[in-house]
Amino acid sequence: MISSFFRRIVFGMLFLLCFFLGWTARAQKVPVTEKQLSNGMRLLLVERHDEPSIAGGWVAHVGSSNERPGITGTAHLFEHMMFKGTPTIGTKDYSKDVTIISGQERIRDEMRREEQKMRAGYRHGDVDDLLKPENKTEHYKERCY
Hints:
- This protein has helices spanning about 5-25, 75-85, 95-125, 140-145, and strands at about 35, 40-45.
- The protein is mostly helical.
- The chain has a two-stranded antiparallel ribbon.
- β1 and β2 form a beta hairpin.
- The longest helix is centred in the C-terminal third of the chain and has 30 residues, at about 95-125.
């Protein structure tokens, strides 16, 4: 026989569960307008009048989960074309982009060298927490990475 105390706890938990499930269901009811462009791209739009901005995102079904044996690596190639560009795609001044990317890579290599020094200090017990600003190397602090 279940005591009245446990019965109240079970009913209380069921009540909370129903309450939160109902609250979540109401919170997720957002009016979405769907439009399809002439090229087949589908747009999902949500109007929000509380903020004067536009946000967007898109999904291209080109990830590794969409590849098949024998045709792999396309997603990675696509990523490089989108974010790094090629001499003809994704950039207006390829030589300037190459210069900027080279500079970024030099800085990242420099950061890796400093982080390697900090990890060595951590392993030797000279550093207690790698995330603390005071435990960064002087060069790392100077450059304000």
